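Hi everyone,

Forwarding the result from last night's run.
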Amino acid sequence: MEYTGSKFIGEYVNRRMEGDAEYILPTETRYVGEMKDGMFHGKGTLYFPSGSRYDAIWEKGLAVKGTYTFSDGLQYDAEHWHYCDGYDRRFYTEICYGLRPSVICQLTNMDPPRKVPKGCYDCGDGFYNPITRIIRDYSNRFLRNADDDEHEWIIRTCRKGWLRLK
């Protein structure tokens, strides 16, 4: 574990992680659940630093069936997903608490929305700087470098922090 920056809390059988355990990745994502032969196996949950989670059934390290829940409680449903699409453009908070008067715009599910640093984009799990191509989480910790496809998607679809004129 000292080489990867991960942390394991649980039992070892034949020098392999086994049984009910907690595995903490260097990104602070935590897996809590069953392990077998050093892999996620059985029921287990991934808890992400953003507050979202993925509850799944795992087989030999691969999720075979699962449910993703966003930090605000919205559950992803692959078969009947109509969140912020052409069918229903409301944010989850608007579905739960109703729409605001038409003169008060809601730009994101979070209300009020996060303030995006000048020249950067809010890409959902952090802020993206298109000059350095680095995504940092909302606490300013490094998340990842964006490849060309992610860069283009962020520029095309995400909310940008603009220079405010007085």
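The domain at 7-69 is CATH 2.20.110.10 (Histone H3 K4-specific methyltransferase SET7/9 N-terminal domain).

Cheers,
N.
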